[in-house]
Specification:
two-stranded antiparallel sheet, mainly alpha, 168 residues, elongated, Fumarate Reductase Iron-sulfur Protein, Chain B, domain 2, 4% strand
């Protein structure tokens, strides 16, 4: 749902704002003076209906409920460029993560594409599925190219865990 539609008759909710402030644990939204450095480096800017600094501003004003039910939170690719660029240590990343957590708590609808990407990462450790490539009429996979097998996250954990036990 478009955030513009959700905002047309919205009123700030100071309780929801307080909830976000408590989740930020010491990070203060009021430190943001809207310099837009976070937005200028945002990887997902082309995908966002709102710019990162605007998300932070809306949360600070108390429009948390509208942000929580919008899709805008789920387009952040968590590249952390906004964290690096923010001169006030008040980057939108932390606000977006707190809003996502609140969305999950409130059982808001999480976009299917986001959930698909998360499950793919949990299964394979990669955001994209393994693919065969082709050049001309030939098709190649990792095995035919003599590339090493890529282990699943579970296999990596098991190997590291066993290695740690052996070292003790």
């Amino acid at each position: 749902m478009s955030l513009v539609d959700l905002m047309s008759m919205a009123k700030p909710n100071l309780e929801s704002r307080a909830k976000i402030f408590s989740k930020l644990k010491g990070r203060d939204l009021v430190n943001c003076f809207q310099c837009i450095k976070c937005t200028s480096g945002c990887t997902a800017l082309k995908l966002l209906e709102l710019k990162p600094h605007e998300i932070e501003k809306l949360a600070n004003l108390g429009f948390v409920d509208e942000l929580v039910v919008s899709d805008v939170l789920w387009t952040c690719v968590t590249c952390l460029k906004c964290v690096q660029r923010c001169p006030q240590k008040a980057s939108p990343y932390h606000v977006i993560m707190a809003l996502r957590n609140l969305a999950v708590e409130k059982e808001a609808k999480i976009p299917e594409a986001f959930m698909k990407a998360v499950s793919q990462i949990l299964e394979t450790g990669m955001a994209e599925a393994y693919q065969k490539i082709s050049k001309g009429t030939e098709t190649f996979d990792r095995e035919s190219l003599k590339l090493p097998k890529i282990c699943s996250p579970g296999e990596v954990f098991q190997t590291l865990f066993l290695k740690a036990l052996e070292e003790k």
